[in-house]
Amino acid sequence: MRQAGRSLPEYRAVRGAGSILDAIADPSLAAELTLQPVNRYGVDAAILYSDIVVPVNAIGFGVDVRPGVGPVVEQPFADESDLERLRPLEPEADTPYVLEAVKILVDESPVPVIGFAGAPFTVASYLIEGSPSRTYGRTKALMSGNPDLWFRLIDRLADLAISSLRSQIDAGVAAVQLFDSWAGALSPAAYERFVQPATRRVFEAVPDVPRIHFGVGTGEILHLMADTGCDVVGVDWRVPVDVARERLGPDTVLQGNLDPAVCLGPIDVVEAEVADILRRNNGHPGHVFNLGHGVLPETDPAVLEQVVHLVHEMSPSLNSQLNRG
What is the pTM of this model? Predict the structure, then answer.
């Protein structure tokens, strides 16, 4: 996750104060922050240091990321006139700093670089609510009360995600991840009708590299998220890996699913949880071990180092592949 470096002292030393968008706009700094967890933990991929609201911020919608709060919108999306504020993204002109950071990383990273974008529903929820929400009441009200406007909104957001992901792929990322962080707030019926088509369009537009689909609390819609054209389905800690694979089929590639809060506990508890996830995966080659969500800032880096060590130590098939590569 992009938050992988938040618990590192070296992150706090160079990140600086203010909005994360300021750090993202500095390609050299963004590249350094991307590589810090790679260098410290020895993980097998680098997640681009960016944010899902970068495209909507870049086109001037009026979005910022407030420290301790998250994305906030100066003038939330409310009616049809707000569609005019969502012009197409021109990555070379609007987000050249993202592309430059990717190019730096492709040259300097010892591991593959993963880019990402925000899924239409999750980005829409921020634009409509104006800030992080627990209920997504305004979003659901627009979705069900004015479906025509809803579909026009998420179609534009799908276009933004496609343009952003394509530009990152052209710059050299080895894989991409689509973050639909809050899709778990929806019922299966609502997801299938109001969200899945736009998400599927995003994945179909970026077939060049492996595509990961991520969400939180998505146990009841995992089968629908898998049916979007993605190659990897993210699973948080609420659904065990073996149960998720039973639901989705034996050939499904999964990502997850250690609870980030477990990493705040005693190391023997952390080790037991890691071992249980690997046991449940039962040596299946289609598993990207990860946290079920981002690293909590108060996490001891030494614990995460041990997590990575254990995964490598207990995954001989992975080690043999890395050695051959």
Answer: 0.94
